[in-house]
Amino acid sequence: MAGTRQIKTALVSVFHKDGLDELLAKLNAEGVKFLSTGGTQKFIESLGYECQAVEDVTTYPSILGGRVKTLHPKIFGGILARRDNEGDRDQMQEFEIPEIDLVIVDLYPFEDTVASGASETDIIEKIDIGGISLIRAGAKNFKDVVIVPSKAEYGVLLDILNKKGAQTDIEDRRMFATRAFGVSSHYDTAIHAWFEK
């Protein structure tokens, strides 16, 4: 079917892990490989699944107190590469960039942190950089990539996997991209409102 893409590798990096185990179980059963960071990697491995560390791909550790983990050409190249573009494919091979077909990511709880009365320093640290960038990259390349931008979409993807196996069609991916830009828009609006106070 035109526009169908197989999910082979998933980058999973989430703040909220509740509800993730059922989705991971289905992806694992479908033979999808996992790539992750820090706490999410430990969570995936605690469920008994193999998971490659992002830093093994990038050869860089998490730095600046966790401010920089996924922001690397090997990760973003793997998400943004156009699978039907010969030049992109050649560069992926040249720079050993892995294809990333599914991105499951959520954002630091900025609004909850503000509502808790936290200090300005703590609030600033809850402005997500890597997560929002991953969401935008996955959504931009919806032609090839599935983006799951919050735990609200875990069940949506699980339904698709249960019906179709580890593959999606272009309508599925566009729907997730639409939701992803909704998530990023809401997030940036909340940050902007806080700065305007």
Question: What features would you describe in this structure?
Answer:
It comes from Prevotella pectinovora. InterPro entries: MGS-like_dom (IPR011607), MGS-like_dom_sf (IPR036914), PurH-like (IPR002695). This is IMP cyclohydrolase. Keywords: Hydrolase, Multifunctional enzyme, Purine biosynthesis, Transferase. Residues 1-149 form the MGS-like domain. By secondary structure, the protein is α/β, with parallel strands linked by helices. It has one domain (3-194): Methylglyoxal synthase-like domain (Rossmann fold, 3-Layer(aba) Sandwich), CATH 3.40.50. It has 10 helices and 7 strands. It has helices spanning 20-29, 38-46, 54-58, 73-80, 86-94, 110-115, 120-125, 130-140, 154-164, 170-196, and strands spanning 5-6, 9-13, 33-36, 52-53, 102-105, 146-148, 167-168. The strands form 2 sheets. The protein has a 5-stranded parallel beta sheet with strand order 4-3-2-5-6, with helices on both faces. Strands 1-7 form a two-stranded antiparallel ribbon. Helix 1 (20-29) runs parallel beside helix 9 (154-164) and helix 8 (130-140) runs antiparallel to helix 10. The longest helix has 27 residues, at 170-196. The radius of gyration is 17 Å and the shape is globular. The chain starts with a strand and ends with a helix. 33% of the residues are buried.
Features:
alpha/beta, 197 residues, phosphoribosylaminoimidazolecarboxamide formyltransferase activity, MGS-like_dom_sf, multifunctional enzyme
Q: Which structural class matches the secondary elements?
A: alpha/beta
Q: Which spans have pLDDT < 50 for at least 5 consecutive residues?
A: none
The tally of structural domains comes to 1
Helix content: 40-55%
- CA-CA gap between termini: 51 Å
How much beta, percentage-wise?
5-15%
Instruction: Write down the overall mean pLDDT.
Output: 93
Shape: globular
Spatial extent as radius of gyration = 17 Å
Total strands: 7
Q: Can you tell me the CATH superfamily?
A: Methylglyoxal synthase-like domain
Largest sheet: 5 strands, parallel
Helices, by number, come to: 10
CATH fold-level topology: Rossmann fold
- Biggest sheet strand order reads 4-3-2-5-6
Task: Please identify the top-level CATH class.
Answer: Alpha Beta
CATH 2nd-level architecture: 3-Layer(aba) Sandwich
- List the secondary-structure elements in sequence, H or E: EEHEHEHHHEHHHEHEH
